[in-house]
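User: Can you recover a sequence for this backbone? Please restate the input before giving your answer.

Assistant: Of course. Working from this structure:
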């Protein structure tokens, strides 16, 4: 490859930390075309008051990473410079060999878990060939959108169109009684199974005028959403949030915000949309909350919220005020409202993540240490017994000579995640295992206490503890003491911040099944418990993100999950500028697939897996070294074949995955087939297909191929497409009189510009949004022998734009869709 040499970014960079946390800025440099043999990096740097961390690498640093075409790091973390202390501007220069297979270089400047300030300026990367000839700079990447069309906001209508699937909902929400857990799933009081395809909405987009709430609720219902997770009500950064802004505490609610929340829930309820509500997310305490060291409590009390009595007291107070609040629109208190299907205690929190968090207040770390030493005394009774327990068969003891729990000075274990362990460090296994047990006990105690309090208030719906994007088995087990387990995960989550000035990989999930969303979620489904995915997405600016909805819906059915909730929906208008990494309301090619995904999910068009693979985890797996995101039986592809789950017991009970892998995974052809035969993942070509009676779909690199399913044949000239044919009745496709074809392709802001390797945006662009449009020949087989076939191109609200010419031949109908249709929906009527 050839690097894009020259200055990295514009202007001087300054990074400052008051506490010891990760703070980084980064930039990706392209390597394309001619082979680069070496690069030279130079920069001017100065630092001030940078401390040395407990580990050698915890300093101020400039380093690079070489990445291959899959975004995988090659050759470690080459360091340009690493510093502590204070010095004025000085120039750094360093040369590096380029590893074989390098596609890009990532440049990092920042503070590695240490306080202080670093400035960097005139950062420059130059590339050279084997003869030391300088390789000239390459430019940015601009997508050729000359054949794309401008997205037009659709005309409003009264519903009932081909894209309106609100008939799948069952209004009003709560009509079947309170939700409960039975036989490992959600059911309503009258015995109706409860399954949810939902969206996250968060403050300030929850706190809107009544008319806007009605618009959002109606749009969600028409697109098949039957659940909204109400999130970030307490977020300090949201304006407004739920708190009274005139108070110097977080103990008083805003009357206006509460009224808007009440009405939003009412608008959702009457359309059949249920509510999941989070209780502690991003609350930031104020002076009059009387919280110790309140300025340094982590947002949402992610660590101290588990054990500090004052913070737990405030959590209970918040829950009581909210749950006992009377909603004048629904005529019920929240605690008496069956349309509110669940409450979550604390968002994205776990003590097992503490080794990555270097900005926890010393006050609360000291309190945690005190609880730890008390736990040791209660568990072992004396120092001598602790010495015995922490001494291995080689007579090595993890307890230092000056440590004594009676003196309160025994250090907690590091409990490092796998990616943090360097190999050269001593791992104190007995100390770490007991620390893991201590954290688990603390979390379980907190969950049980809070759940008991909510039930005392009168709560009658399932409760969950927390969730996380990092899966740690011990954390999952602590969450399993409540009613269900909930997880989070993203494809191509933005790196080093949020918004448009971030690094992303721009890789298609359909090419990388081992790292994909569906199977990684499946690793930690707990046997005999409902399973909820309360946050998932494939994020902007990844250009392939329209691949995800149909894949998530189909594998959720294979795994028989209970709720799949995409993050997020911000209620923006069709055609709004795309700039939020998660806001699907501005992505027509993603949110536009919701009707097809909802039809698939609610009707159960794809079958539950025939086989159930269960891995039993014992104490060594739970409390030994942390192997986060550990696949079932070490085989990442199993959940794409069969249903998988874990169970907790006294010892590990492994199973042999080889028979299923040999039968359903063809390593040579690079295909994975579900044991139902309905889902096929061809990761060699990058094509995923769904083949059921009422839903048939092709997702991925289908361009320039003729692909045939049971009743659908597609010859596409558009490279990357998510195309789905859905029956709009209970009849199978070959007997249905009305069908919906959804054809989603790439979208961009007009004028959107990338760096040369498409890992950062150089220009966000502007509206109108540009849509690629799909060019394909479509053939549908039918048994109806229709006298007339009508095909209509539709706008995003299902309004008919124009009629498309269609032909009938034998038991098949055929037509061509093209970008000039300016549509991604097509309605097919057979008479």
């Amino acid at each position: 490859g050839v690097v894009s040499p020259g200055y990295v970014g514009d202007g001087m960079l300054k990074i400052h930390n008051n506490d010891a946390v990760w703070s980084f800025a980064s930039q990706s440099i392209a390597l394309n075309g001619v082979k680069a043999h070496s690069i030279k990096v130079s920069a001017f740097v100065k630092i001030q008051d940078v401390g040395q961390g407990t580990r050698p690498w915890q300093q101020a640093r400039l380093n690079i990473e070489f990445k291959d075409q899959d975004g995988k790091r090659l050759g470690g973390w080459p360091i340009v410079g690493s510093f502590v202390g204070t010095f004025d501007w000085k120039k750094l220069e360093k040369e590096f060999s380029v590893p074989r297979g390098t596609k890009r270089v990532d440049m990092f400047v920042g503070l590695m878990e240490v306080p202080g300030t670093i400035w960097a300026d005139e950062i420059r990367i130059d590339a050279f060939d084997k003869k030391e000839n300088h390789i000239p700079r390459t430019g940015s990447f601009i997508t050729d959108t000359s054949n794309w069309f401008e997205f037009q906001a659709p005309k409003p209508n009264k519903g009932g169109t081909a894209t309106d699937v609100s008939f799948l909902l069952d209004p009003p929400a709560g009509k079947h009684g309170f939700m409960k857990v039975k036989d490992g799933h959600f059911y309503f009081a009258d015995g109706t199974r409860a399954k949810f395809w939902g969206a996250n909405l968060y403050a300030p987009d929850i706190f809107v005028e009544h008319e806007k709430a009605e618009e959002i609720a109606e749009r969600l219902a028409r697109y098949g959403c039957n659940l909204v997770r109400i999130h970030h009500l307490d977020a300090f950064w949201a304006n407004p949030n739920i708190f009274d802004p005139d108070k110097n505490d977080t103990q008083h609610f805003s009357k206006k915000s509460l009224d808007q929340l009440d009405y939003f829930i009412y608008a959702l309820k009457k359309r059949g949309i249920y509510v999941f509500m989070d209780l502690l997310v991003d609350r930031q305490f104020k002076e009059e909350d009387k919280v110790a060291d309140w300025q340094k409590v982590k947002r949402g009390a992610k660590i101290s919220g588990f054990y500090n009595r004052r913070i737990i007291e405030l959590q209970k107070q918040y829950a009581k005020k909210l749950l006992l609040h009377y909603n004048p629109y629904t005529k019920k208190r929240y605690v008496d409202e069956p349309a509110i299907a669940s409450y979550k205690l604390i968002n994205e929190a776990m003590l097992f993540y503490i080794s990555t968090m270097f900005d926890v207040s010393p006050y609360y770390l000291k309190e945690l240490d005190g609880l730890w030493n008390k736990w040791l005394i209660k568990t072992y009774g004396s120092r001598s017994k602790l010495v015995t327990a922490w001494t291995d068969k080689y007579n090595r003891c993890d307890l230092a000579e000056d440590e004594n729990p009676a003196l309160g000075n025994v250090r907690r274990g590091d409990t490092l995640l796998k990616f943090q362990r360097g190999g050269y460090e001593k791992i104190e296994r007995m100390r770490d295992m007991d620390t893991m047990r201590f954290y688990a006990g603390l979390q379980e105690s907190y969950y049980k206490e809070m759940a008991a309090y909510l039930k005392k208030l009168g709560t009658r719906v399932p409760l969950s503890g927390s969730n996380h994007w990092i899966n740690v088995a011990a954390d999952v087990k602590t969450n399993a003491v409540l009613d269900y387990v909930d997880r989070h995960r993203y494809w191509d989550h933005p790196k080093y911040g949020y918004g448009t000035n971030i690094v992303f990989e721009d890789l298609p999930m359909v090419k990388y099944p081992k790292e994909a969303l569906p199977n990684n979620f499946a690793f930690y489904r707990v046997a005999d418990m409902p399973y909820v995915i309360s946050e998932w997405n494939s994020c902007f600016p990844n250009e392939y993100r329209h691949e995800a909805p149909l894949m998530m819906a189909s594998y959720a059915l294979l795994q028989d999950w209970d709720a799949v909730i995409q993050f997020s929906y911000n209620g923006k208008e069709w055609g709004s500028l795309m700039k939020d990494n998660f806001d699907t309301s501005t992505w027509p090619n993603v949110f536009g697939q919701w009707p097809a995904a909802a039809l698939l999910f609610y009707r159960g068009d794809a079958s539950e897996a025939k086989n159930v693979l269960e891995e039993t985890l014992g104490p060594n797996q739970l409390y030994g070294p942390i192997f986060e995101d550990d696949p079932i039986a070490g085989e990442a592809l199993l959940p794409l074949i069969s249903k998988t789950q874990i169970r907790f017991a006294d010892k590990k009970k492994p199973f042999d995955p080889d028979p299923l892998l040999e039968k359903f995974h063809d390593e040579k052809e690079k295909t994975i087939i579900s044991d139902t035969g309905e889902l096929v993942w061809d990761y060699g070509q990058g094509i995923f297909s769904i083949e059921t009676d009422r839903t048939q779909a092709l997702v991925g690199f289908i361009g320039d191929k003729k692909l045939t399913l049971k009743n659908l044949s597609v010859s596409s000239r558009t490279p990357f497409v998510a195309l789905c044919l859905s029956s709009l009745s209970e009849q199978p496709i070959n007997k249905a009189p009305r069908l919906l074809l959804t054809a989603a392709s790439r979208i961009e802001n007009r004028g959107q510009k990338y760096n040369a390797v498409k890992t950062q945006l150089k220009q966000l662009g502007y509206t109108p949004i540009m849509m690629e449009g799909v060019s394909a020949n479509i053939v549908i087989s039918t048994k109806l022998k229709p006298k007339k076939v009508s095909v209509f191109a539709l706008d995003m609200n299902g309004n008919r734009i124009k009629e498309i010419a269609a032909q009938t031949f034998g038991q098949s109908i055929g037509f061509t869709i093209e970008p000039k249709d300016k549509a991604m929906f097509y309605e097919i009527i057979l008479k």
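That completes the design. Residues 757 and 815 are 37 Å apart (CA to CA).
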